[in-house]
Amino acid sequence: MNREDMLKALRKIPQSCVYEEHQAKIRGKSGGHMVILHPNEHEKINKIYEKYKEISKVIEDVQMEITELEENGKKAKDKVMTCCKSIKSSIETYEQQMMEKIESYKNMKKQILTDHLNHLHTIEQLFKVKNEEINHCINDSDININDRKLKLQQLLDDSSVQTISWNNHGKQVDTVIDIDSFDSLFDSVKHLFQQYMVIHERGIIKMDQVQLIDSNNEKPLIHVQWNVDNICDMWRHACCTYQLEVEPTQMKNKDVNIQGWKVIAQIKGEKDKHNGSIQYGDEKENSLEWGNTYSLRMRICGCDGISYSHYSDIATLETNTFDSIIIEKKENIQSKLLLLYRGSRDGFASKDFHSKCDGKGPTVTVVLSDKYSHVFGGYTSLPWTSEAGWKSDATAFLYLLRSGKGDKPEKWVINTNYENQA
């Protein structure tokens, strides 16, 4: 028996030292005991491992997104650089063309002035010669006095001199060469860059409803309901805002201070929120006015000045003032309407009415007759008072809106020549 066979045999005999050493080595490798797993524990271990693989895959995907983002960012920069170089080249070409056109324009006017100047020099020379001849005739003592007079008369009567004329009425051409509207040009170029040199967000925003919510406000108060789609939650929550823009389309009120499209309101995007509303009108800078028609639109802004979605469809908003078949056009001045008194709310006693209406200025009273189903009332420009007596109001009138008998709506004004008795 060789040594190796002997060791194998001794490892199987518990009483041998070789056996103890062999068992110690086995315990060192396995921790001394083998763990027996329950099936549920085995399942949990598998789930943890699966989650590990899942998160590893997500990490890999995010790392790929970062790499892709960097590559696309570089491509976008290269595209902008190429575009700007092309624009610069076009501007330089146009600059050269403009220099040539200005030079040509200047030379055309210069040629006109040069031709006119040559003509004037010719006339000047003619008069110079004529003047020299006259002086010579007057001062030449070698010629008989009578001959000098005769010659002088001939020189003075020369018809060619008498008929010579030239233009001496101010400037011959306008020498001003001015390129106007540079500020407008810069603004237009800036607007074009803002409009076209942008990153288009994939998100979509829609306006579900646009409405006026308070016709009694000093200025229009509007409420816009919106919804968004196809935009990542993390991006929406971290960076996105929703912008509301307005542009006047019909302006009965000439005090409108909006020129073109203008952002009037914006709100921050929220995670897991796909719809909401914007209210505009309470701001001190409210630029809307009653009696006008406006166009409204919205878009998503990811990064101001560079990243936007496409615009929503355009909605039309009419901020009409109070229209009435009873109040005439001359009386239809823009006013703030306020409900002062309601019998069902404030009480039907006269003191209830006067406590709410006294001293409040012009009023329109509306009366509903439950028994006969009449709706009627009146208007007075004078403030109500609890004092006994009467006052004259030439602008007062009565009206009927609805009659239980079927009468048409009607208005009764003060008869002419009876204003003082009204």
UniProtKB/TrEMBL annotation:
Protein name (Swiss-Prot/TrEMBL): TLDc domain-containing protein
Residue ranges of coiled coil:
52-111
Q: Which Pfam families match?
A: TLD
- What is the superkingdom listed in this entry's lineage? Eukaryota
Give residue ranges for domain TLDc. Answer: 313-422
Keyword Coiled coil in annotation: yes
Q: Which InterPro entries match?
A: TLDc_dom
Q: Which organism is it from?
A: Reticulomyxa filosa
Q: Which UniProt keywords apply?
A: Coiled coil
